[in-house]
Amino acid sequence: MNYCTKCVYPQSGVNLDFDDDGVCSSCAVYEDAAEITADAWSKRKEKLVRILEEARSTTPGDYDCIIPVGGGKDSYWQAHVIKELGFDPLLVTYHGNNYLPEGQSNLDRMAEVFNCDHYIFHPGVESLKKINKLTFSMMGDMNWHNHAGIRIIPMQAALRFQTPLFIWGETPWDISGMYSADDYAEFNKRMVFEHDMRGYSRSDMIGKGGLTERDLRWCRMPSDEEYAANKLRGIYIGNFIDWDPIIQTKVIIEKYGWEPARLPFERTYRNFSNLDDMHENGIHDYMKWIKFGYGRCSDHASKDIRKGYLDRDEAIKLVEKYDHVKPYRDLNRWLSYVDMSEDEFDCIADTFRDHRVWSKDEKGDWIKDDIRSFDSRR
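The chain above was modelled as a monomer; its predicted structure follows.
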């Protein structure tokens, strides 16, 4: 395995490119974005206002735009920015039944603290349990329904409420360096299908694991014709306003009383990410470790290196502490939720290991190269 020489990302999993100095494409794109001046950010913000004004002047419904929210730090920041700019959004939530108590409380308070209408869609719990279990076996991702739902339900709401503009937060170029900040990448159906939904659709699941048409009737994207005819458009605030989750989290705590996680997460040092879905930082992320050999701590630490909150050696110590941890508090909840044994879970999980990353030693234990062994070889 190769690792970035500036952050702690491995080449596996994130689809990174490395330059001749061993710097990953995510770091390279961030360095370009870091060169954007305060004046240039001001002009980008003006561009955001123009887009919102155009939507407000042409929208036949009561809302200026839609903000997909889960009640997390990013959701609050998105709502904060749009309301501070003087626009009236509709908040839209896909509720996947995995909320931490503090995450649920944050979600419940959004309509009050922002004085916004809030549309919440919650699939039937028995349907969710069946989807969890099936998609874990099919693709090693029990959270597939959440990734699909938070994208699809806002599109459906855009049609229902005749409000074509929806506002996302973090930019898609932040993780893999796929896009430049100057590309102003926008939300699209292809990205939802290929990335969020892993190339699977509802038709791949109906008739499997006890799932019926009724269980997945919510999981239907608008057709290309509907999407175009209704001029649906999704933009990212991070393309227009400099994105720093640590600063943003401080703002929403002070201004709105937003609450971070009360208990430490088992697989990362941050306590303010993914409160709307306990499994994102838990067994969903553990599956990323099983598949690709890195985890949420590597994600968080790499971002914090780029922003100057950590140096690389500090980040490596955190990765060594967290990335490999099997999150039993979270795992036990999910096993009970879907009626599965831990042995069955482990057996299924091992089928998704990338053999370019993992091999077995003479004892039959799974092993891989770590970042320190990589550094020592350089």
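The CA atoms of residues 268 and 297 lie 5 Å apart.
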